[in-house]
Design a protein that fits this description.
Elements (H helix, E strand, L loop, with lengths): L18 E6 L9 H9 L2 E4 L1 H6 L7 E4 L7 H6 L6 E6 L7 H5 L8 E4 L4 H9 L7 E4 L17 E5 L5 H14 L3 E6 L7 E6 L12 E6 L29 H11 L6 E5 L5 H8 L5 E6 L2 H13 L6 E4 L14 E4 L8 H8 L5 E6 L2 H14 L2 E5 L2 E6 L2 E6 L3 E7 L2
């Protein structure tokens, strides 16, 4: 029995919330702070991936529990231990594309303490000598590789976290096909651990053999002469979209996007979406944007999906069904664009009712019938009614003349 005043009984329990989330690197317990190490020792249950549990094994005294499959049940198992000293092990910084961000949706901040380790992005930036604030960080872990496409701008530097050993060999041909084959890719494997390795290749010649499943790509973007670079501003060229002629022209699209006034995290209905150009422009405004494109024709709905993937917004949802029936099951939107079907009974009324307070609605018309409807709506509800007329200079004999495009009327309205 330990005597009073001696230190043989070990350290006193730390004052802590019931849940701690500890970031651990490939260097294992050697890279942990004394406080993080003691939290692991004192936890009655330790959750983590098998690799994390192996890295922390010398410190674990309680029950080690690997995350269940499917992961959807994991948060319930964690919350069932509420009130007990529980520790969750995570890779690097738990709040940077990590498990900590998922847990924080269910556990208040005052009930947990988070101790981050250097993230793989920080380690990669240190190895490359790149200022972290000046690079684009992208996680493709469990996500579509198409998300890299909007970031492929010549001269930019990207740090790309992948899912597994196969991902780098899939990203390189995607970039090559898109016209970015000359890009320099540095493959950083098992950063911070004994198996760390750094290799370099161009995207078009990427054949580095066996790759460690824990890897990150540092990409220096270089483009071929005709590479289709996705601009930052709304009003991308029609040539960037696959379409059957039913597409909002880029000048009109720029006006519509200005009227819709996208804000971070907002949700758009693109009704009568055609090629999906408005919804795609909306989602390209910021990674947090969401959109559902509603299109009744099968061929066009399929085309919208292809356009969304090619332009780097694979998360755009496509509903193949006619409005207004297709709208009843959708969440309330922050903004709505109606590009087709405005004269179908019930479409505009349903959209106006579904729109959130402060939400914006824009309706485009190219026919006299729809334009007449928009004039009536403007008279009844106010808002803004404008007409966009564009003329382009084209050859006329051996000279040049103006060729007018079909005018487009747009009614925009904000719900008070």
């Amino acid at each position: 029995m330990a005597e009073r005043g001696s230190n043989l009984a070990g350290p006193a329990p730390l004052s802590r919330p019931w849940l701690t989330i500890v970031g651990i690197g490939e260097d294992g317990v050697a890279g942990l702070s004394p406080r993080a190490a003691e939290y692991i020792r004192q936890a009655s249950t330790i959750f983590g991936g098998k690799r994390h549990l192996q890295l922390a094994a010398p410190l674990i005294r309680g029950d080690a529990s690997s995350w269940p499959r499917p992961f959807a049940t994991a948060i319930g198992k964690l919350l069932a231990r509420r009130g007990e000293p529980v520790c969750v092990l995570a890779s690097g910084d738990p709040m940077l594309f990590g498990i900590g961000a998922i847990i924080a949706r269910s556990v208040p901040a005052e009930e947990m303490e988070i101790i981050p380790a250097p993230s793989s992005f920080s380690l990669a930036a240190a190895r490359m000598g790149w200022p972290l604030a000046e690079v684009e960080m992208l996680s493709l872990h469990g996500r579509s590789l198409d998300l890299i496409r909007p970031l492929l701008h010549p001269g930019r530097r990207l740090l790309v976290l992948t899912s597994d050993a196969e991902s780098p060999a899939a990203i390189a041909p995607l970039m090559t096909e898109a016209g970015f084959g000359p890009s320099r890719i540095t493959l950083l494997e098992a950063l911070g651990g004994p198996d760390e390795r750094v290799r370099v290749a161009e995207a078009k010649d990427f054949g580095l053999g066996v790759i460690h499943p824990l890897n990150l790509l540092a990409v220096e973007v270089r483009a071929e002469r005709e590479a289709p670079i996705i601009p930052l501003t709304a009003g991308r060229s029609e040539n960037m979209f696959e379409h059957d002629g039913q597409i909002t022209k880029y000048e009109v699209r720029a006006v519509v996007m200005a009227l819709l006034a996208p804000r971070r995290g907002e949700y758009l209905w693109d009704v009568g979406a055609g090629s999906g150009s408005i919804g795609i422009e909306w989602m390209l405004a910021h990674p947090s944007m969401r959109c559902t494109a509603v299109e009744a024709k099968f061929e066009r709905a399929e085309r919208i999906g292809r356009n969304a993937a090619r332009l780097g917004v694979p998360g755009l949802q496509v509903v193949e069904a006619p409005a207004p029936a297709a709208l009843t099951a959708l969440a309330a939107p922050d903004a709505i664009f109606i590009g087709g079907g405005a004269t179908v009974p019930g479409v505009i009324n349903h959209c106006m009712e579904a729109l959130r307070s402060g939400g914006r609605l824009a309706v485009a018309a190219v026919t006299l019938e729809t334009e007449s409807l928009l004039a009536s709506l403007h008279g009844a509800h106010g808002g803004q009614l404008l007409r966009v007329e564009i003329s382009r200079a084209e050859p006329l004999g051996n000279m040049t003349g103006w060729r007018p495009a079909r005018p487009v009327a747009i009614w925009s309205w904000t719900k008070s």
